[in-house]
Design a protein that fits this description.
19 strands; PucR_C-HTH_sf; CdaR-like_regulators; PucR_C-HTH_dom; single chain; elongated; five-stranded mixed β-sheet; 17% strand; five-stranded antiparallel β-sheet; 518 residues; Helix-turn-helix domain-containing protein; alpha+beta
Length: 518
């Protein structure tokens, strides 16, 4: 398919199949013969006469022995030992151990073609839906499983989904928010003959700077009028680079060139979708049809089930772009989630309709990240209208504030566990605690202080046990008849009726405010 005079059709070759097969299979032999990118899919070989050079054929070794292929250039995957000499076949061959099930190999190869085609289609959909460099890089990071970024010809970072230790020294302008290389690094590059030579290259190449600790796979970005406008770099940090990565970087660069040609980027601009979320948090009006369009790019819908997670940093850190690292780490752990950098941490919106994890499983999945980076998380209630994300993000933030007051050593807090704390806290915004509590309950506190009675402790245990007298008596280590007498005495002393539901509720609130009930 051609978009804007660029060929975006993705074809595979045998090297790409080897890169993927070797992750789960033991490849005993691989012979490359004119291994162009021309493969569109896989087929089972059973001796048929009509064969296509665009397909790779899979079968057991005895099938190939029984029905030899005389046509040159036909790619094949053979399960079992090959008897004929490889150099006599005039084709690319992948040979696997005989113990492997050939049907499972065929299905595995089909999945490879589907995965690569799906990624290419996703890149195309991003551009067709108005997405830009950031969205393209997020998709590429998931595909390549290595950190990456794009900078322009002035070394300003245009897109960087994540930053990890080892990616080099970068700086953030506190006023503009622009991300750029340190002047020291820029000067090193500009004075390096080896680097200057790379500025004229086309296609994917390895760059291993003398001052660095790892390799990078890069490609220069040239516009349709042959103007150098920047560079895409893939860092070899999470997994080793493979030969097929060169081909995929070249394919990815096609979409980057289209984005540059169509000006689908702004220097250090957060994604337009992130801007929408920030507006929703601030309570600003947005155009709903545009929001729906941006959600569709993620495969989300306006009325899916969502929750918000507020992630806060509890200790100061000098680590560069720590907020971005939090966002990328959460996105890796929670596939159906979107994280954006906010004050003192990050906000994550989880799509529970699509997620493989339930709300109660989140603490387990995020525990390691919280401990490693010393983070605290608050979780909102569920909501089914994405436009309400602002209100529920505040719930998540409030969950942390209230949770740390009661359980300062915990790291994960649900707002639903602290709703009563939130409600009661609003009682004291205008009046003091003592002025809100009734004279009767304060009188009971004074009686306990002067006479050494335990009336407040008795009421606290009574309410904790839901008004059930037997467990209350057990907790207080008194006889049930003693408890009944004490409750009657309390009611007479301060003039209340514990049978009245409104009275019980008010007394419980007053006791909670005074610290007698947790």
């Amino acid at each position: 398919m051609r978009l804007y005079n660029y060929d975006t059709k993705l074809l595979l070759n045998m090297q790409i199949l080897v890169d993927n097969l070797e992750e789960d299979y033991n490849i005993s032999f691989f012979c490359r013969w004119h291994d162009e990118q021309r493969l569109t899919g896989a087929s089972i070989y059973y001796g048929q006469k009509e064969l296509s050079s665009d397909l790779v054929y899979v079968a057991k070794a005895e099938v190939y022995a029984r029905f030899p292929i005389t046509e040159k250039g036909i790619c094949r995957v053979i399960v079992g030992k090959l008897k004929e000499k490889p150099d006599a076949l005039l084709c690319s061959v992948i040979e696997l151990e005989e113990s492997v099930c050939w049907e499972s190999v065929f299905n595995y190869i089909q999945e490879i073609f589907i995965r690569y085609a799906s990624w290419s289609q996703k890149l195309e959909d991003i551009l067709n839906s108005g997405g830009g460099l950031h969205e393209l890089c997020v998709s590429a990071m998931d595909f390549f499983q290595n950190p990456l970024y794009i900078h322009d010809n002035n070394f300003y970072v245009l897109a960087m989904p994540t930053w990890v230790v080892g990616m080099g020294n970068i700086q953030v302008d506190e006023n503009s928010g622009n991300i750029f290389f340190s002047q020291e690094k820029i000067q090193k590059l500009q004075k390096s003959p080896a680097y200057i030579q790379t500025l004229s290259t086309r296609g994917a190449h390895i760059w291993e700077p003398s001052y660095g600790t790892h390799r990078m796979l890069y490609t220069n970005i040239w516009t349709s009028d042959h103007h150098y406008c920047g560079r895409f770099l893939l860092h070899e940090l999470n997994r080793s680079l493979k030969p097929g990565d060169f081909l995929m970087v070249n394919h990815f660069a096609t979409f980057l060139r289209m984005a540059f040609d169509r000006n689908l980027f702004k220097r250090n601009d957060v994604t337009s979708f992130e801007k929408i979320i920030l507006k929703l948090i601030k309570g600003e009006a947005i155009e709903q049809r545009y929001l729906v369009k941006r959600l569709e790019m993620l495969g989300w819908e306006l009325t899916h089930e969502y929750i918000c997670l507020k992630i806060e940093i509890q200790k100061e850190s000098k680590e560069i772009l720590r907020h971005q690292k939090i966002c990328s780490s959460v996105n890796i752990i929670l596939k159906d989630a979107l994280s954006i950098s906010v004050e003192n941490g990050a906000l994550t919106i989880c799509n529970l309709t699509l997620s493989q994890y339930s709300r109660t499983e989140l603490p387990v999945k995020l525990e390691g990240l919280c401990r490693e980076m010393n983070l605290t998380m608050g979780c909102s209630n569920h909501f089914y209208d994405f436009t309400e994300v602002g209100e529920y993000s505040r719930q998540a933030e409030k969950a942390i504030q209230l949770g740390l007051q009661r359980k300062p050593k915990e790291y994960f807090f649900y707002f639903s566990d602290y709703v009563l704390d939130y409600i009661i806290g609003h009682f004291t915004e205008e009046f003091s605690i003592r002025s809100i509590c009734s004279d009767s309950i304060l009188a009971l506190v004074e009686i306990d202080r002067q006479k050494g009675t335990e009336y407040m402790e008795t009421l606290a245990s009574y309410f904790k046990n839901g008004g059930n007298q037997t467990p209350t008596a057990n907790d207080l280590f008194i006889h049930r008849s003693t408890l009944m007498y004490r409750l009657e005495r309390i009611q007479k002393l301060i003039g209340i009726d514990l049978e009245d539901s409104d009275t019980r509720l008010f007394i419980q609130i007053a006791m909670r405010l005074l610290g007698y009930l947790n």
